[in-house]
Design a protein that fits this description.
Helices cover 20% and strands 21% of the residues. By secondary structure, the chain is an alpha+beta fold. It has one domain. It starts with 8 loop residues before the first strand and ends in a 5-residue tail after the last helix.
């Protein structure tokens, strides 16, 4: 997939050609200025701007349909497209993700990205694979399955979750 990541490809639509460029998803580079990993395009910010969902306190995109259980990809094209209407914030800042984080990466207003990533992700030398070792912030979120397809709706989820002691 990487060998094709920056190769433009044509798409025929209404008898004319549109040039499209896929954006590689795992091509982050360290930004000395911000002290964070950055990619060519912030897919979660692009998704939020396109009306797919909103970014939660845990810094993950939350969609009404799938919650934070999404992996993003993108294709840039030269044709102007109408975005969906922006979503109302799904995250209600309950703080469960902040409390459960084992490395305290969410205690400040901006996530401590390096601390989180060093703990949560890594290569397994035996299996030669990249693994996710922690997603507690995602699991504890009342909206990790979204508001539309989860077992209950947003209001009811809040009422149920608030019954449990902190």
């Amino acid at each position: 997939m990487r060998q094709f990541a920056f190769r433009p490809f044509p798409v025929l639509q209404d008898s004319f050609c549109i040039v499209c460029v896929p954006i590689p998803v795992n091509e982050s580079q360290w930004d000395e200025t911000t002290g964070r990993w950055r990619s060519v395009v912030s897919l979660k910010h692009a998704a939020q701007a396109a009306g797919l969902g909103t970014i939660g306190r845990h810094s993950l995109l939350i969609t009404p349909e799938f919650g934070s259980m999404v992996w993003l990809g993108a294709v840039l094209c030269e044709q102007e497209l109408e975005p969906d209407e922006r979503k109302e914030s799904i995250c209600d800042l309950c703080g469960r993700c902040v409390e459960i984080c084992p490395v305290h990466a969410l205690e400040n207003s901006e996530m401590e990205q390096t601390v989180c990533w060093e703990y949560a992700f890594g290569d397994d030398q035996k299996t030669k694979s990249w693994n996710i070792y922690c997603h507690k912030c995602r699991d504890i979120c009342p909206y990790h399955l979204g508001t539309e397809n989860s077992w209950t709706g947003r209001k009811e989820t809040n009422e149920i979750c608030n019954r449990f002691p902190e």
